[in-house]
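Write out the 3D structure for:
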Amino acid sequence: MRIKILAILLLPACTFSFAQIGEYSYKRELKGISEPWHKIILPDEVFGHISQELTDIRIFGITAGSDTIEAPYILRLATEKVSIREVAFKIINASHNDKGHYFTFEIPAPEPINQIKLDFGQRNFDWQITLEGSQNQIDWFTVVENYRILSIKNGITDFQFTTLSFPASKYQYFRLLIDSREKPDLTAAIIALYEMTEGTFRNYPIRKFDVNENRETRQTEIEIGLNMPVAVSHVKIDVKDSFDYYRPVTIKYLTDSIKTEQGWRYNYSTLTSGILNSIENNEFQFSSTTVQQLKIIIHNHDNQPLTINDLQVKGYVHELIARFSEQATYFLIYGNKASPRPNYDIDRFTDKVPATLTALVPGNELTIEKEQIPLIDPLFKNKLWLWTIMGLIIVLLGWFSVKLIRKN
């Protein structure tokens, strides 16, 4: 009797616990939990089943007592880590000769540098630059030569490429030669050591790659289809042409589609815009977004279309840093786009996360069975019974009516 009463008391709690998991659609078992902290690298297949904001990811565990517990996590993207250390300097000389205009920078405490950002009063120029280094201003050594800087400003475009990047060099003096008849109006410069640790990416194979030239709009439209929805953050466009070019470009992704009487209507949202040009490497970066179909629009204006040789699509690796505090069978749960973003304490104590973490590999994707609402069977499944009862009711009503008339 006591066991029955205890079971009845525990039933609502168990029902609530399993209802938490039942709000989601998919699960993957997490095996090999041996420490309080682990990292979980999200499989590509997950992104097609979660919200664009990645808010509906949970880690639930089922204890030996059939209780449901939730393990907190921190979502991290394996992005690049950039360090820029500016170096103090002063301009000690500005001169010119038939070769061009010179600017000499002195670094009082010589230390390695690999980047110089320049800013000029002019807004339309195309110059070649040579950078030299020296310890005594007598012996000069070439650091970089024939380096092109460019600025274009008009009613349509405002574009500048005026940053010199070169191998790390350590000199007390750096001399900049600008091959220009016009005197460059150098208004500012930043000398720095730029260091970047590469992020961890996944390259996604392209299933569909269609290039169409729209003569009316003078645009090249490139449609890209991926095998599945994945988190994308970088698109690189490889142009085959060797001549100089400068084209505005817009990268969009398919958000939804609607079937109308005239056919399918596709809606796109913009990921990023920029300039496709012959100076840079034409790799465009944007916030990580779940996409499966992309559209790249190149604005050619009055120029001939470019020949696109190849395209690369890649995205950061997404990982969960999870803390497990109790023994349980844990699952990665997802698939409820109405679910709000979780709020965990560990988001505020990231310094407590160990430097080295063992990775857990999520198991195969399983569908979470939803609780079925039982259907109540009708009292009479066969309509013949219903008609028979209705006939009896009519006969009884008729008999009572006749009896009442006779009494009157």
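The first helix runs from residue 2 to 22.
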